[in-house]
Amino acid sequence: xxxxxxxxxxxxxxxxxxxxxxxxxxxxxxxxxxxxxxxxxxxxxxxxxxxxxxxxxxxxxxxxxxxxxxxxxxxxxxxxxxxxxxxxxxxxxxxxxxxxxxxxxxxxxxxxxxxxxxxxxxxxxxxxxxxxxxxxxxxxxxxxxxxxxxxxxxxxxxxxxxxxxxxxxxxxxxxxxxxxxxxxxxxxxxxxxxxxxxxxxxxxxxxxxxxxxxxxxxxxxxxxxxxxxxxxxxxxxxxxxxxxxxxxxxxxxxxxxxxxxxxxxxxxxxxxxxxxxxxxxxxxxxxxxxxxxxxxxxxxxxxxxxxxxxxxxxxxxxxxxxxxxxxxxxxxxxxxxxxxxxxxxxxxxxxxxxxxxxxxxxxxxxxxxxxxxxxxxxxxxxxxxxxxxxxxxxxxxxxxxxxxxxxxxxxxxxxxxxxxxxxxxxxxxxxxxxxxxxxxxxxxxxxxxxxxxxxxxxxxxxxxxxxxxxxx
Length: 472
Ligand code: GLC
Prior knowledge:
alpha/beta; Rossmann fold; 9-stranded mixed β-sheet; 19% strand
């Protein structure tokens, strides 16, 4: 099939979150299976800096704006079996250090939507499936369906994937003249223009990134206002769990690790990596279970619970803790304070380092992920691949991927708690610490977690079936 993916970020080109990992791996996997895959991205500053010399100009487009036309240079980079097209416009993308968060995001991604459809019209007219992702692409299926300029593309079927419903692309109606299309109330929600809503209502099919999150999105608590619309679309709405790139994340071939290992050699491998990780963070006492986190530091990722529980357990001398990530200054200051209090047992690094993230995946004994909500979550899958047992809030994709330990049957691949409460997290952590005292059971769980298949194999297949059914 000829499939064109569109999104705002993809590894290795630009990344702020898990969306980039998915768009950096699923298209490659589908290409390996014989499909003809293109990916269209804005040409962000990071792409100009790192990939400019690999980009070939393809065509120049002129996109109508309210006052004048804007230039869009379409460039192609061949990348691991797929064709990546960049939409180059320095004013809208190239000169901005941030991917989003500017006052004119609506205008920028409105411009991007037109540039994408014109690229498809001129360069990829044989596209059969257009797979769109998150609010930045929400206008595209609307234009495809309702805007006469794109009539020639109406054979194309569209899929719209929600990676996180909390981000919707909401803009004042003053944006309308910048969108270069006719108004209809489909664009509107709660009296403002809402790109996510537009995508949900106009794509041929809507997906989200796990079956449990799909069910949760029918409820107001999770759906940020979109529950009614998703109910409306129920017949064309499904949940498909993400995979991770099993080549990219492989403890037997990971250069960032002190020592590589397999499920067989996990005990010795982890011992060396834990020592290395503890040295990096200046921690003492390798006999204590080491809990790690790699995460954006926001309330949604469960940091209020972590701040409530973890420092007291560290103070009691029953565990060590390391955290890598950045985000909310309030939480950063809180965790800095705890690090200063317990420098031998509490480590933090504010920022991002791929190498250090891998050291944590491999060197920690447990991986903490108590997210308040989690559409899919990738880190828990990576940690299991590295034999690091996840401790998770059983929500969204975390529920679908981690089987909680059952002390009677010894089944499980990690630890879980049901209710988003500090005390429930504490019980799960204590139960993990308890199992750490029984190395035989601990190893059993580790090896089982390492054998789980979180590659794209099965999910890519589900996407293929969906594309087939849409194509008819
Ligand atoms: C978003 C979600 C995360 C998911 C990722 C990829 O970042 O918050 O749960 O894994 O998208 O779909």
